[in-house]
Amino acid sequence: MGLFSAMLAANPREEAPFVETWSPNSDEILGAIGPESRAGRRVTPDIAMQFSAVYACVNLLAKTIASLPLRMYRTDRATGKSFEAPEHPLNDLLEFGPNRWQTAWDFWAMLVMHLLLRGNAYAEIIAGPRGFADRLEPIHPDRVAVERLDDGSLRYRINDYKGRTRFLLQDEILHIRTSIAPGLVGISPIAYARETIGLALATEEHGARLFSNGARPSGVVTVPKTMSDPAFERFKKEWTGLYSGLQNSSKTPILEDGAKFEAISLTAEDAQFLATRQHQIAEMCRWYDVPPVMLHHMTGTSVWGTGVEALMLAFVRNNLNPWLACITQAVRRDLILAPQIYSARFDIESLQRGDSKAQAEFFSRLVLNGILTRNEARDALGYNPLAGLDEPLTPTNTTTSDNLPGNGGGGSSAAHGDDAGDVHADAPDTSEEIAA
């Protein structure tokens, strides 16, 4: 595919005129927001991970998505039904081994973290024995700038770890971007949540400094007369060394020359930074669209217990599915040569299952109604098949057109002729005999 694009573009790997260039940290994206928050804390994707809520959101989404198998499916054009296609060369690449040094879990966890923290995830498509996409080598987003050439195609300028500048064409790279994309690249929630994260980090630093000074203000020391500069410096040095810090918080100060100490108590309003920290966690959950309870942030009534199944289903449908669609559609665009026939899907069955009781009732209904065979149910639950369980059951209160009266069905009176009616007519009243 790279050769085909090279034939269409004029010197695509050399410096060529282009319309616009975007990179995750370019001034076009960060200029209006600024690299430093108003709280005075510089916020970058790596610094943001020091805030526990950011780490928890990113960690939850990355690990969950990485644990889901990504498989290839083939669509039968005649029936429109889809079937797994393990024979497709991309299936092994996506589900098991994208490259020589990463497992599929490593690869997708890395790309999802890049996507959530920087708004973009890149992987170079390298040809080999399995076809044009034999390996997928991840590229750090900070090393990539996207250019639109005069012909409308994209070109990726990469500064690799060896200090070289390389150019990759659009069909030589897998590019996953967030839905919020003002140009050729996506923007992560970190860029928009800069003030939220900056305030959270500043509040955390304030709490740390507060406790490092004994968890309360030092108070006021008054002296009856003016101190000389050497005496003042000596007093300040001794006071700081003897009575500041958590390790000295219980010591009783000994004053001289009539000096008096008046402590300043920490009021409830002064301690509101704790409530501020709680609020910042909830704010970060909104930025990443993750339920706070999924981060073990439980305020008020907990929803764990009877509501855990509904919570997980809502998390999968409302929060996780958009990210899965973002990835699979990028795979369809950049990796699948026949998207009308083949598609890639994440298997989310394990996330949608209920507890043991709910699973038993679910599969029992499917088996008893003939929707699944007993062996299909056993396979879904992880059990080995058994002989004689490959035929679907027929419910006793339902029938088919073959068994309707007049169609020769074994259960109709027509199958027995007129004698069937005589048998019923001459039959004794069973209920009266039992009563007698």
Automatic annotation (TrEMBL):
<feature type="compositionally biased region" description="Basic and acidic residues">
    <location>
        <begin position="416"/>
        <end position="427"/>
    </location>
</feature>
<protein>
    <submittedName>
        <fullName>Portal protein</fullName>
    </submittedName>
</protein>
<dbReference type="Pfam" id="PF04860">
    <property type="entry name" value="Phage_portal"/>
</dbReference>
<feature type="region of interest" description="Disordered">
    <location>
        <begin position="388"/>
        <end position="436"/>
    </location>
</feature>
<feature type="compositionally biased region" description="Polar residues">
    <location>
        <begin position="394"/>
        <end position="404"/>
    </location>
</feature>
<dbReference type="InterPro" id="IPR006944">
    <property type="entry name" value="Phage/GTA_portal"/>
</dbReference>
<dbReference type="InterPro" id="IPR006427">
    <property type="entry name" value="Portal_HK97"/>
</dbReference>
